[in-house]
Amino acid sequence: MLSLRNKTAIVTGAASGLGKEIALLFAKQGANVIAIDYNQQTLAQFMSELPQGSTVTSVTADISNKDDVKKVFENSEIDILINNAGVMDKLDPVGDVSDEIFDRVININLKGTFYMMREAIKIFQKKKAGVIVNIASIGGLEGGRAGAAYTASKHGVVGLTKNTAYFYAKSGIRCNAVAPGAMNTNIMSGSINLSTAGKLIKSMLSNQGNQKIGDPMEVAQAALFLASDEASFINGAILVADGGWSTY
User: Residue 221: pLDDT band by 50, 70, 90 thresholds?
Assistant: First the structure.
């Protein structure tokens, strides 16, 4: 049984989708969870649904804002950082991407992840221990799974993961990533026409005969393993969790 008892974990983008499942699973496995989300209303709804006695606290913060990120880590002693918060682009190729979309996606998916990692590393170095799990994407490993902005942001997350794992391995710090495929979450909400997105994903999946869209809990379990002591010798790895999508 994987256990996070006596561990404190920050989970970003925790109010919905994949982040919500990770926060709930980590709390179930004994962790004290700090749930971070920029949407105060959604975060409050998430907190209201927690079972009595839950070991989850919430902080409203925008991870693309350096000042917000610094406040998250004030007086915090954490053991685990889960960088899950992210947004989708409009599935546009580079010639069609607007500055607004590119900046938004990079600022949240890549710079936000970087800001969170930079602050966590300061704590982990003092303790000579700590675990970072970044939620990347097969869009960070392949070229045709999303638009140019999202693809660039997730390739950046993969690079940050490997670079951090290399430079801090001797400090007792591990950094890995999970790379999900198509997920049944709300990540595309507000970015593109959901009907169009669903048809595109279905078309991509059908190209290699795999119609499976992942459940958030399936990726949460992968994040739990990488965050646990049972994964103590795994560092700098990108764990693909896509039901075989990227085998095509």
Answer: very high
163-188 mean pLDDT: 88
Examine residue 2 and state whether it is found in any structural domain, yes or no: no
Residue in this structure with the two tokens 């962790």, named with its chain if needed: 31
Angstrom distance (rounded) from CA 17 to CA 209: 26
Q: Which of 63, 5, 17 is nearest to 187 (CA)?
A: 17
The pLDDT of residue 190: 47
Give a yes or no: residue 3 inside a domain. Answer: no
The reply to whether 225 falls in a domain is yes
Q: Which candidate in 38, 150, 166, 168 is catalytic? A: 150
- CA 220, 193, 99: angle at the middle one, nearest 5? 90
Its pTM surpasses 0.85: yes
At 97-141, the pLDDT tens digits run: 999 999 999 999 999 999 999 999 999 999 999 999 999 999 999
Q: How many domains does the chain divide into?
A: 1
CATH code, 216: 3.40.50.720
Contact by Cβ (8 Å): 237, 176? yes
Q: Which of 152, 141, 153 is nearest to 63 (CA)?
A: 153
- Are 149 and 170 in contact, with CB atoms under 8 Å apart? no
**In a domain? residue 64:** yes
Active-site residue 150, yes or no? yes
Amino acid letter, residue 11: V
If we measure between CA atoms, which residue out of 69, 166, 162, 85 comes closest to residue 123?
A: 69
Q: In terms of C-beta density within 10 A (0-12 exposed, 13-18 middle, 19 or more buried), how is residue 5 classed? A: exposed
Print the domain residue range for 61: 8-247
Res 198 pLDDT > 60: no
